[in-house]
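Example record

The entry below shows one chain as it appears in the dataset: sequence first, then structure tokens.
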Amino acid sequence: MNKLLVFFAFIAASFQVSSQTHFTALKITPEYPMQGRKLSFEYNKNTSSLIKQPTVEVVIYQFTENGVKALDPVIIKKGTIYSGSIILDSNANCIAFDFSSGKEKDMNGSKGYIVPVYKKNKQPVDVYYAWVSSLYNGYGEYLFRLPNDADKGLAVLEEGLKENPLLKNNIGFFNSYLNALSSAKKKEAAPFIAKELENFEAKGNLKEAGYNTLIQWYNKDKKKAKADSLTVAMKAAFPEGDWKKNEAGAAFYKEKDLAKKVILFQEYVAKYPSSEANQSQIDNFKSQLALAYGKAKDFKSYYEWSKGLAKEIVASNNNNLAWAMAEADEHLEEAKKMAADASSYTKNELQHPTEKKPDEYTAKQWEDQRKSSYAMFGDTYAFILYKLGDYKNAYPIAKEAATINKLKDAEYNERYALLAEKVIPTADAKKLIEQFVKEGVATAKTKEALKNLYVKEKSSENGFTTYLADLEADAKNKKRQEIAKSILDEASPKFSLKDFEGKTLGLDDMKGKVIVVDFWATWCGPCIASMPAMNKTLAKYKDNENVKFLFVDTWESVENKLQNAKEFMNKKNYPFYVLMDNDNKMVADFKVSGIPTKFVIDKEGKIRFKSIGFSGNDDALVDELTTMIELAGK
């Protein structure tokens, strides 16, 4: 056996995933659950990480050939034992248990509670392996916060191949396997992947999906000539294949001229008429055209193209356009009309849903999602009414939107506060906003509203700075304590990337410095939204040589990634030091599953903090990173 094969055999053995599952806190009956059969379970809170929690919520995710289903089983509680049962679907291949109490989760260490569905020979059904690999490679984190673990994702596929080597003939499994190799072992896996691609092609009788997989991987490996030759062969073998439809769709998305875009749409529909399989794509094209007309302020055409689209799509488009017009302070009456329609639709769906519950949501998750949509769209409507001076009608809508978010979202609180200043008695409004400031859920505009009320009450702004600082002190101390509790102690992965000038910078080059790493992309809306706050934080430390900020551009799919990133930064005019993660190696090494994600690394090269996403509150992000930097510096 060659050294490379020995290496991968060692990896698989090191992370072996047993085909028969045994858990300390969870017992399932039968031991080998099968498709279409009953599965019973018992969960003992006292032998789990939730031992100190008063109650436990149980959700079961069932993975089938058609996707994922979230189940709310009827739970019987006896002392610390939670029991129940479900009937597995006839095409089920894997199930995962999610045990939680508030924000606390029992993740069975970091392995999760994942149970195979078995065949009669007591071996997992074939599709089990690909599903579990996807759970360890990001999908599990999305569903129920299962930690990413690329090595486990690879190991479970290796186990599947050990049981059934023919799984590689399945294009879905084969692609999952190559992705898992790439994620777990990065460039070390490159020659192994190359051999796998060669063997796959040599089998012959390629389907279109097989060609596409080969083309994708050869392009990824920058073997353009090979990818191009396979593309020619695929088109010759399948002259009316899916590639033709995909190219027509890509041309539509790429076209910027609206008139030409309409022509491309008409040509697409003429060649690929509406059908059950094609309708969602056509609706997406129509939605894109409607939005384009809306942004061009051709509202007549916007409404024409919106006809026939699903109500939830129209409501979302209405909300997006209305918010943009409100922020630009233009066409406010039209924005009001759109926002009113969107808000009314989501309120009706909250109270009397007409849409079917998505399979991947539990009943509670679905209700929470509908509440969130109504709060978002209602907040837009209230914002527009505020802009129009209709404070009385806007106030209860803004209050309800903020309340749905439990008064914990600073952006929603901002609209509530600005309208409270206008509508309710000064003392009541002041008390409300004071509480927002004390709890650290107040934006700069909310604090400005508090200042207005303070001056109104005192007839002077004298003393306001001290008064505000006193209010903020508790929130800052509380937040500092929360952040301190989240401190990590993980060695940072080594990295070495090039900047815009081609200069290489690595972790070892910054010994003795606190490093802030911000993973972002030019297409990532939340990443871009967080940049003003990152710029403010950068400005705070501009004279501190012991703190280094790295903005790592990753997950880009454009041809010239360097030029793309440079043009973006020139347009935005941010003084950020950008490193190019062109092969997505660094983002994988840091086990990032979504961006923006920020890391704070201490002077010894250890990851101390991780911050995922962006709440929309600039001040909160600046304060959070400042605290993380200070604690990491110690």
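Notes for this example: The chain is about 55% helix and 15% strand. Confidence is low (pLDDT under 50) at residues 1-18.
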